Amino acid sequence: MQPAIAQPALLEQFMTAAIEAVATVQVIERSPAALRDAILQQVRAAPRILFAPPQELPASLFSEFAADPRVLANPTPEEMVNSAAGVTEAFAAVASTGSVCIDISFERTGMVSLLAPLEIAVVAAETIVAQPRDLFRPDVLGGRGLQRDFVFVTGPSATADMGPLVRGVHGPHKLHIIVLR
Amino acid sequence: MTSTPNPADITPRQVANKADKQAFLDAIRMTLAVQSPAVRHNTQTFNRNRYAATARLADYDELKDRAREIKRNAIANLPELLRQLEASVRANGGHFYLAKTATDADRYISDVLTRHQAKLVVKGKSITSEETKLNHALEAAGITVAETDLAEFILQVADEQPSHIVAPALHYSRERITALFKRKFTTDLPLDTGEELTVFAREKLRQQFIAADAGISGANFIAADSGSLMLVESEGNIRMTTILPPVHIAIAGIEKVVPSRTDFGTFIELLPRSGTGQPLTSYVSILHPPLKAPPFAAPGKQPKAREFHLVLIDNGRSRMREDSVLQEALRCIRCSACLNSCANFETVGGHAFGGETYSGGIGGSWEAGTGKLLNARFSELCTGCSRCVNNCPVRIDIPWLNEVLRQRTNFEQPSSAAKSMFGAMTGSAGEDRVAPLQKQFFANYHTLARRATRFASFSNAFSRLPFVRGLMESVVGLDRRRKLPPFPNETWEELYRAADWRGTPRADLPNVLMLADVFTNYGSPEPGMAAVRVLREMGFDVELSAPLPDGRAAISQGMIATARKQANALAMLLLPHIENGKTVCVLEPSVLAMLRLDNAHLLDETIWAKFSQGKFVEPLQLVWSANQDLAGIFPANRSPHGKRVFYHSHCQQRTCNAAGETLEVLRACGFDVVTSSVECCGMAGSFGYKRDYYELSMAVGEDLFAQVRAAEHDGPRTLVASGTSCHEQLWAGMGRAVLHPAELLVSALV
User: Fold this and answer.
1) For residue B263, which residues of chain A lie inside 8 Å, CB to CB?
2) Does ipTM surpass 0.90 in this model?
3) A59 touches chain B (CB under 8 A)
4) Which of A32, B261, B283, B369 suits a disulfide with B320, CB 3.0-4.6 Å?
5) B residues 135-194 closer than 8 Å to A (CB)
6) How many CB contacts within 8 angstroms connect chain A with chain B?
7) CA distance, residue A72 to nearest chain B CA (Å)
8) What percent of chain B is helix, strand and coil (3-state, nearest 5)?
9) B285-343 pLDDT, tens per residue?
10) Is B239 in contact with A114 (Cβ distance < 8 A)?
11) How many CB atoms lie within 10 A of CB B336?
12) Hey, which residues 19-48 in chain A have their CB within 8 Å of chain B?
């Protein structure tokens, strides 16, 4: 087993790896206002924002953001495929790879985190684990990684099939991660 | 000469099936002419990235051990795991189908889709579905199949087979994709950059994801305990395929099953790093379908409940499981490390070094296992250089699999009086005398060389005669463009006995038995003499063994019985010395690898148990281990060759972890050393001498020659190499003498 690493060191390692994977990362204070400001700063003038309500973090944390009129509570199929950004929580993050883990067992979370060009993932700092393998241990994060349907998301979608490396293929073109202190 | 088509006119499909020898040779010409630059660039990028990514895993070796053990267990308990998996999938609410053949799998999938009245299916990358030729079956049933992985999309547009297990279209450069798309599509887009091509394909495919009636994916791993799938990708098309449509069908080989979802923890660390060299790819999905969240409700379509089918195919795998050698291949996790670390593959890719579905070092076993032995003919391109061995995350001894395939192919040849007689004269074991003349010729190199050196000046003059070269080319396929290194007038053994050795052995240094390997003994005794001299100067007590073949030349021709005979005889010679605590020093790295690694397959079990306790080292390892003042004994500035050196270590030397010391020694002496970074020089024993592979061998060598030229931008360097074949290849490519590191040291002796 890997030695336990202190959480601040994990956060630092996570940020370095996520940036290496071409995601953007910011760490904010855990409050509804700070979260709203952080998300809205990313989406700017986007007319439509997809949002999948959280299962782990308290819903109240997202209340100020969800009140923005551009956030679609019940998007139509057309809106699902024509929105500028998708906001979800991530139930875990991985320090060595800079990945966020998105639970897609729930309503729409899979599509919200996939269909829009900008993906915004909100993750609590204490859920950062050291390595991908930790998600497959029953004693880490209550064994969620062994029970749920989820995706390790590491940076934006990418391909090298067309010659040079291109970011932004079928999935999001940009990944922004908001870490809650 | 028969008229051969222009290589640029050969299509990959025409040469996909290598059961036809001409198709195989045409495929080599075509890939060298058309695909080589893109294949080189892409595989070598993966290769570099893999070395960097695995170096960052603190417990890489332990992970490989664990991965191998998980797969070993899984294959051993496969019938039980399949029963457990079926129960898990059904408990999750999915359907499970075990297809005996490719046709069964295709029919089942076609039936499911027909029942749903599916018109359009989106497909994530699945090489297994290439094996079953699923697209043809579905199209015959009137279903449109949209390949959504951009590489598979290119292949579908071009109607070509995959050339690589992870990046199936890596033989396409951006320029060739542009040309292909402009030919096949009408569009106003310029399509002149990777971005534009991606946008074009994305928009086309986005419509299809939304409209699709069903999605078909593969699976990288499947957990029996929970019916979970692990799906590795970067484009997001597999997420689309598994999340959006109401029907999800996953197709995979039965060997993808592992006992538990907890096992994913090992493979998620190893697979992406071993493949593209990324810590993780953009997306790794962990699903136990059917998903609970509802599918995408396309505008104007009835909402449907989700349905999931897991289709596992056997198609020869159970037979592979019963085969004591091919069962190793079932452990393969299809990461492509063996493709990317292979110099031949890097140069031609999977359209030459591959069959209709599978390619590269491991591909021969898969084509033979799921098809016919002759389809694996391309595995002749495995030179046994062994660079893949340490890079395989499940530690499959891939060269050994290819040597066994070669043996089986030899055994399928008709016997003939000429082959039997030639074999008896040159020393083939009885059962190997069915092998083609060329194979027996190269396998018994030492017998021929022993005779040739007796009359060296005659042999050298004789073998230079044009009609003799012509005869050698037509009878044993020895390419006449290769200059033959001259046979020496005296063997290493003779020179050694005649020499007057000075120096008093030092008690603190190990006693050394220098193996008179047949390549050095009959081919190039000078490096051997230099190595003995260097070690004696340093105070080692060195004795030279009798020259005995080691089995390397025979095993490389698939003449395993002959190799076994030679390896056991050599072991008998060496064992008493090993038991006396002597260190066995081996000059030729391919022989060092033989003693350390290959003998595990060749020696009788009880002999191997004792033999593997022996210490087998390369001479420069001994020099370094003596911990002496090297700059005082071999000061570089005394060498008439100058201080500037280009050093190329041997492929098997690196696999044996026996190359680093040479560099340390040369630098400690004060040499200014630039090293090569190629996996193999391309000569690889007899490979580069064969007429069929001469062009390929030289194309592989070109990477090495280019590195020499780059290192000499500011002035010439002395060429130094550790392996006999590397000497010959560098000599051919650069047209000048090449020294062994020991010769360089002798030149600097005070």
Assistant:
1) 136
2) yes
3) no
4) B369
5) 148-151, 153-154, 167, 169-170, 172-175, 177, 193-194
6) 172
7) 16
8) 55, 10, 35
9) 999 999 999 999 887 777 889 999 999 999 999 999 999 999 999 999 999 999 999 99
10) yes
11) 27
12) 21
Provide the CA B424 distance to its chain's centre, in angstroms.
32
Q: Could you tell me the pLDDT band of residue B1, with boundaries at 50, 70 and 90? A: very low
* Structure tokens given for A155: 């940076």
Give me B464's structure tokens. Answer: 């230079």
- Smallest CA–CA distance, residue B707 to chain A, in Å, is 24
Q: Does B127 touch chain A (CB under 8 A)?
A: no
Q: Hey, what amino acid is at B559?
A: M
Residue B280 contacts residue B268 (beta carbons within 8 Å) = yes
Closest among B95, B117, B97, B118 to B106, alpha carbons compared: B97
- Tell me how crowded residue B193 is: count the other CB atoms within 10 A of its CB: 15
pLDDT for res B462: 87
List the one residue out of B639, B701, B651, B649 whose CA is nearest residue B674.
Answer: B649
| Alpha-carbon gap: B67 to the closest alpha carbon of chain A (Å) | 13
One-letter amino acid at B256 equals K
pLDDT of the residue at B3:
62
Instruction: Give the integer Cα–Cα distance in Å for B520 and B727.
Output: 12
- B548 close to B518: Cβ distance less than 8 angstroms: yes
- Does B282 contact A133 at a Cβ distance shorter than 8 Å? no
What is the spatial distance between Cα A78 and Cα A83, in angstroms, rounded to a whole number? 9
- B503, B532 Cβ separation under 8 angstroms: no
Q: CB–CB of B39/B170 below 8 Å?
A: yes
List CB contacts (< 8 A) between B177 and chain A: 162-163
Q: What is the pLDDT along chain A (181 residues), one digit of tens a residue?
A: 444 566 789 999 999 999 999 999 999 999 999 999 999 999 988 899 999 999 999 999 999 999 999 999 889 999 999 999 999 999 999 999 999 999 999 889 999 999 999 999 999 999 999 999 999 999 999 999 999 999 999 999 999 999 999 999 999 999 999 999 9
Cβ burial of A46 (10 Å; 0-12, 13-18, 19+) is middle
CB within 8 Å: A137 and B177: no
| Residue of chain B whose Cα is closest to the Cα of A94 | B280
Distance from CA of A64 to the nearest CA of B (A): 26
- The reply to whether residue B154 touches residue A161, judged by beta carbons under 8 angstroms, is yes
Tell me which residues of chain A, numbers 142 to 181, contact chain B at a CB-CB cutoff of 8 Å.
Answer: 145-146, 148-166, 168-172
Do the chains contact at A169 and B239, CB–CB below 8 Å? no
Please choose, from the candidates A130, A67, A125, A116, the residue with its C-alpha nearest in 3D space to the C-alpha of residue A87: A116
How high is the mean pLDDT of chain B?
95
Say what the pTM is: 0.96
